[in-house]
Amino acid sequence: MPNKVAIVTGGAKGIGFACARRLLDDGYSVVIADIDEESGRFALDSLEAHVGNVHFVQCDVSDKLSVHNLIAETLSRFEAIDVLLNNAGIAFQGGILDLEPEDFDRVLNVNLKGAFLVSRAVVDYMVNEIENRDDRSRLTEKPYSIINMSSINDQVALPDYLAYNVSKGGLLQMTKSMALQLAPYGIRVNAVGPGSIKTDMLADVAGSGKAFDKILMRTPMGRPGQPDEIASIVAFLASEDASYITGQCIYADGGRLALNYIMPVNSSDD
Ligand code: NAD
Asked: Domain 5-258 belongs to what architecture?
């Protein structure tokens, strides 16, 4: 069992919560960082079996001071940061014909700049720790891992979610840039690209009935994914089992990116 510390941003709900729970089950201490305090408290309540190993910090990843506080609280509580999962994200509807500039900024500030701000602060800590190790412990200490929650929308676009597509495309390139610069330190940086996963975000974007059928028509496996099916990839990328993987994105999309035709589906409105 690893005796490591992980920060999960946007960990109060959905995919982030499933990842926090999985990392706790795998033996990590976990800091859940989320802007939504009420959901954070609810998350802590449902993780009471892990009391002492899980901590909630109210944090807006798009705010530099708030991120500074997250790092300080994590170190004061658990004295280390071994894994960072940049998962906090928002989606906002609007395309080139109607998206307001402020809404473009809002999405980019959370999904892309937020991941940058938290990574920047965590990497400062990690590199400093590595540089202060003696030669022997540099070889024996377990290395660090950073994981960015991207999306299939870093590859394919939705016409009416322009800012979201842009943010995830940027996050994929940030993953690669970070991986290259941090490889000599032994810090691995990877991404996960989910397709349609059953969370509040999917409910907001796709709703139910015909809109949901459209998603199934694009999904060869014929069902949305579950948050736990993303958490298992995060657990793998965080672990030593992924020790030679860096700069990659693992897509979990029920076959969506491989698809070049539309699946027949029985309408749930029938
Ligand atoms: P969700 O809405 O269920 O959860 C997102 C969490 O992020 C919430 O707890 C929210 O409070 C938090 N958050 C929002 N803004 C924040 C901020 N400024 N600072 C800190 N926390 C903030 O969404 P989800 O579906 O679980 O999505 C999680 C991640 O997975 C996102 O990055 C999303 O883009 C990505 N993703 C989701 C899907 C999907 O189908 N659900 C598909 C691909 C990628």
From this structure: 3-Layer(aba) Sandwich (3.40)
